[in-house]
Amino acid sequence: MKTPITVLQEMMMKLGQIPEYECVAQSGPQHQATFEFRCKALGESVSASARSKREAKQEAARAMLLCLSTIGHRVPPPFATEFTQPSHSNQSTGECSEGKAPTVDSRSYVALLKELCEEYKLPGVEYALVADTGPAHMRLFSVRASIGLHSRDASGTTKRQARQKAAADLYLFLRENLSRLTHDFVEEQALVRAHERAMERLVETTPAPWKPDLGQRVSEYHYGLISHTDPEKRMAARAVLSETDDIEEAAERAAAALELQTCWETLDPLHVLKLDAAPALAFSGHSRADAARAALRYLRRALRDVSPPPPAAL
User: Name one GO biological process term (predicted).
Assistant: First the structure.
């Protein structure tokens, strides 16, 4: 079977181009070094890590073939993915399938990778945010998925997207190289198991639905968070607001500490952050960061130690 480098080289030659490879990082002691290679082709950029330069270069080529497959290029098997959804890549970012690009396919590779590790007694998957670049309205996150000495890096416009891509690269690498040992691993059954576990956790952790306070006065709306949350939750939210530097993350973590659901919407040209507080709240801005900043201003004011007035008699 042809190697990923050979397949990618042949594809690019047909298009009149040549893929570019670059060793961008080396970490660890000399006898146990890890090398990271970057591959660029057709305006896309991906990276991969391995214990040798040769293997890292092969894995970068493999990741590029997977990337090209997800955006609609004809990639020969086994390097093409099934169930891909063709889409145009965002050439301005220089990263694979950023902007409005699809995930690798419709299934969750984070769940599949976790199920694979549990079934074959592999170490747990570790995810780490390795880069966060770009302006507030065009953030680019890079996440590393690691199992033992094997790791894969991937980028996305959200942390969740980058995590999903890194999990996909690592999962496909393990399945291909351990195919004889994992031939009895059925992906659809693994996804069903993961879904059932997620539903069990959802049932256990989902709080009772919020009911509106029909006796609350409009003039006292600013007491809503104090009136409808426990002191422990407010203390946890204040701690988050004082420790977190990332604006969007701070708003979402503070809402989570208060057990409030958050929802992002885009009403061109505005970005809107909704909180299911009492009453329901919405904060807008020309970017997600502006909307999150407005929400943080409200939360900081509302979480001050101010006692609400006694409830009015009906």
Answer: regulation of regulatory ncRNA processing
